[in-house]
Design a protein that fits this description.
Elements: H1 2-49, H2 53-59, H3 63-67, H4 71-85, H5 89-92, H6 101-115
Length: 132
């Protein structure tokens, strides 16, 4: 009986631990999306001023657009937007981009990436022996 209670308590702790990881991932994802969205807005404003449609397209994302796809796709899209802003950072600052925005966004991306399960990890199927 004690072993059963202990097993149930251990399972409960494990499930509660996974809930906190899920909550952390959700919060980190929201931070990544929000920091990326700021970069998008400033990038669009700069591109409109210089009348560069190609540059505007690089930053033309809504929050819904940023959320599309699986976690790895979201991560890759957001990192790409941050990388696109790096060479023109000095041009974006006058449009009220906080000076540390790219750093904050990169840190959020890194934290989110660490919470994404490793892709390509092969989990072997459980084999059930059917003895008669």
């Amino acid at each position: 009986m004690d072993a059963t209670v202990t097993a149930i308590e251990d399972k409960d702790k494990m499930l509660k631990g996974s809930e906190s990881v899920s909550e952390e991932k959700l919060q980190t994802k929201e931070l990544l999306l929000d920091t990326t969205l700021v970069i998008c807005g400033v990038g669009i404003a700069y591109a409109a001023q210089i009348k560069d449609a190609g540059l505007k397209a690089m930053f033309n994302f809504t929050k819904s657009d940023l959320k599309e796809g699986n976690e790895k796709e979201i991560y890759t899209r957001c990192v790409g937007i941050g990388k696109a802003a790096e060479p023109i950072l000095d041009k974006l600052l006058p449009f009220n981009l906080p000076p540390d925005q790219l750093t904050v966004q990169a840190e959020a991306a890194s934290a989110f990436d660490k919470l994404i399960p490793a892709h390509g990890r092969h989990v072997p199927p459980i084999r059930v022996s059917r003895k008669k």
